[in-house]
Amino acid sequence: MKWLSDLFDSFRPQFEKRGNLAFLKPLYEAIEFIFFYPPARTATAPHVRDPLDIKRYMSIVIVALLPSICASIWFFGPRILLMILVSYAVGGLVEVIFACIRKTEIHEGFFVTGILFPLILPPATPLWVVAVGIFVGVFFGKEVFGGTGHNIFNPALVGRLFITISFPTILTSGWTAPGAWRGAVDAVSSATPMALAKTQGVLTPATDLLMGIPSGSVGETFRLGIIVGGIFLMLTRVSNWRVPVSYLASVFIFAFLAGLFGWAPSPAEGSVAPFSFALFHLLGGSVLFGAMFMSCDPVTSPYTVPGKFIFGIGCGLLTVLIRVFSGYVEGVMFSIVIMNSFTPLIDHVIISMRYKSVETLEN
Amino acid sequence: MTFDGGYNVMLEGAPSTGIAAYQKPEALYLPLFSDSLDFSLLQVEHGEAVTKGQILAKDPINYSVPLLAPMDGTVNLELAERHITLENLSSAKESADKTAEDEGQRQTLLRLGVWSSLARVDCGRVPDPDNTPECLVIPVSRMEPFFPAAETLLKDTIDQFGAGLDLFHKMLEDAQVLMICAESDSEIKTQIQSLAASRTDWLKLFEVPNTYPFDSPALAAQLNDLNPEKTWTTDLQTILAARAAIEENHPFVKRIISISGPMADTPCHHQLPIGYPLSDLGFRNGSKPLRVISGGVLTGATVAAEQLGLDCSCQALNVLEEMTEREVLAFVQPGFTKRSYSNTFASFFKPLFKEKSTTALGGEARPCVFCGFCESVCPAGIIPHLIYRYLDNDRPEDAYRVEFEKCIDCGLCSYVCVSKINHLELFRAERQRAIAESIEGE
Questions:
Q1: Which of A84, B233, B318, B389 to pair with A156, CA 20 to 30 A apart?
Q2: How many domains does chain B have?
Q3: Boundary of a domain, candidates B250, B270, B287
């Protein structure tokens, strides 16, 4: 690797204070530090540190997403790679421009946002819509708040929310059937399980959902992979188990109650058992993906332990409410974004209760 | 009792239990400072001949605790800045005629250099000899890498140690004594237990998990509902030194210290006089740049290049390699050789092993992402990232409202931080500020 290190060394003067490209220093450093760690040492106690850093922390999320990414390419074709590429390119550009203006380092949080965003879109979303969405997500969802660590809403969900509202027809007609691109199935597009359940009362079997046979957003169809990735993320301690577990448990419980009270849309023949209704809502749509990868984002979910449970239960309740009672077939995105906005309040209340006399608290 | 948080940093280079012989020094370089003391009041002149135990300088801020001559010799004040150099050394004949008739035991400890090894639990400063604590907390097992082992310090001296405890108990007007001991069975624990068995009304054994930092006196005070302002702490050697001072008029000028860490040649214990030349310890001659730390690797201070000899409060020296090589694509490597608090390294699948850690920061500094590791590892049950945010925004009153005073200064929050934030440094600065303010107030 000596040649690469020499190459970086030869370019460095261009980006130093008086160099021609000094304004691009954050970009140069980001690229260099990906290959070679900065030789940073501890200055004072503690003299030794844990080897985990933000780069690896964020990379672990991408590793956890690999089953979903691979499955989505198998289901929807190499076009998915293009969507990911566009997402990274446009989102990365926003990130780099902000870092250069602020003269700070480029933060790694974007690596996760850039991959999560295409995975929550319908597979046939036009590339220009992907570009607009990630731009809005990174710009308005994160950078205007001050960058990584300061955002209130999950940036990928902000982008998704924006394009859902701006381009409703594109977003609702892009449901390609998995495998259609290589002729594995006859239908080119199909209704999602959530839409089928809402309009016709048809519940897709759990095994189909787990294996990713019915259509859905890019990354949400292969649910077995999501479960494996999510558990991996919890075991590595990168995601805190409290949010996803309470989210999933409350979706199941509230959907079960909805079924019990007869609020489930009934099929043409027969009726829906509360248990199968609850199981369908647990596995159907993007609940699993949202719980495992979106809701547990540490920046936008509460940091207090009881707050995490409140957040998860709130997400679950809102998801079921939206799915059962509103005009939308899916409520995961809305519920997480709404709960994101409650995060500072939840933390504030928990901290005030724990330390009685806290008066002011800013996030 | 429940123990939350804590984490063991496993390092190579634990000291062997024996005491190794050392080379006789040509001269002693006594620093006029230590981590908590400043001997600004000189009591000798250049060229003066001094005898063992003679007062060389005093710290006027800390009840005039003295810096003593460890051997007979001639004072040289011009050789090194902020040091008293002692040349023409000779081993002293023990002179027992210095005892003042009406001197109290506390004054004896002060005069013979023992008192400065006592500390208040709430602020770490030397306690006022006119005050009396309710409790004296003594850590027996040490979990931070690395400190002298109790097995070495108390080998063949357990009876003297018991006598020292009796002495402290009486001198401190029937203060309680709490000994912190790891749960695991060991010979030393059995010996301490038998000491406690014959002193049940005032000597208690506090058993803790063998995890850092449950040996912390501040934490022990919290968990046992002791008033930290009326709790003092000290180490095993000071108890032994106090007995020798009072019963035999011995000045406390020689300490058993451990020299350990991944880069120590032969990690072991040495009994060295204060001012022993650091260059004679042989760890500054290698080809790799090294960092010598006075104290443990999590809370100790780097020994500055200007410091030439052992200072009077040094208990342990730990030697680490300075990180110089840049790792290639470190964040995508499986990491079989790196242990982490998280389970993000392949070493998760290996049994526990000791690491050859360097001073690597292990990444780049970033804003806090609220991963929560600092809170879950914190043994004091506070929220380090929240306190850090308050202090960083210059709102110390809010930090105290969320119980900053509970912080026991263990440094684990900084150790585990994914964003490489140094909470400990800011917390210590705030504590220093608060102490300075309270001294001004007095």
A1: B389
A2: 2
A3: B250
